[in-house]
Amino acid sequence: MKNIHKKSIALLLMAPCLAVMAGQYSEFCSWEDSSSWGQNLACQSPNIAFGICGSGKNQDCTGATGKVSTQLYCCSEPTVGNPSSEKLYATNNWGQRLACPSGQVVVDYCGSGKNKDCANDNTNSITCATVDSISLQTNTATWYSTNDWGKQLACPNAMVLTGLCGSGQNKDCPNSMTNEIQCTTYTINN
Asked: Tell me: the pLDDT tens digits for 127-151?
């Protein structure tokens, strides 16, 4: 009887953790893969982006079918509406941070390898959009980074992707990082 009681208490203590994990990182999420640099990856409406994976001169990200060049992590909560007012932002310099305007989120991403592979000789580009069903707490915007090519970066729970930085064949992002993401806390409007 004591063992059953201990297991019940353990399950009850774990329940809040399971509820948090079931939010953003759930059956409503998937990694979109690109096998070639310079290809735009878009979150299909009503999905919005929560993370990326970027490669250097090799295909370093691990996708559903093997090694790929870039990935975009897209999620949709059942109550998130369709993005609107989309606008493209791009850079032709590796290691330059791209951030959405206040109140907008990333819905599309293009990354380059050792060449300027995105449209118009750009190294990286993002498309930002407004999502009426969520509100962003812009004072919470935080940059997360990695110095390993091919590492999947995803925003912590209750945060959404609002910017990024990508490298080419060198570690070009600030502090010799390969990739960075900017994440901002969001709430769902009632």
From this structure: 998 888 889 999 999 999 999 999 9
- CA–CA separation, 59 and 67 (whole Å): 6
pLDDT of 18 strictly over 90:
no
Distance separating alpha carbons of residues 70 and 42, to the nearest angstrom: 12
Residue spans of the domains in the chain: they are 30-188
Contact 129, 85 (CB under 8 A): yes
Query: Locate tokens 């992002």: which residue?
Result: 173
Nearest to 107 by CA among 187, 26, 36, 40: 40
The answer to whether 111 and 166 are in contact (CB under 8 A) is yes
User: pTM for this structure?
Assistant: 0.82
CA distances from 175 to 165, 171, 180 (A): 12, 9, 10
Mean per-residue pLDDT over the chain, rounded = 82
In angstroms and rounded to an integer, the radius of gyration of the C-alpha atoms of the chain is 18
Structure token digits, residue 2: 């004591």
**Six-digit token pair at 81?**
């509406």
User: What percentage of the chain exceeds 70 in pLDDT?
Assistant: 83
Which residue in 62, 53, 86 sits closest to 167, CA to CA? 53
Residue 138 zone, left/alpha/beta (φ > 0; ψ -120 to 50; rest):
alpha
- What's the pLDDT score for residue 21? 27
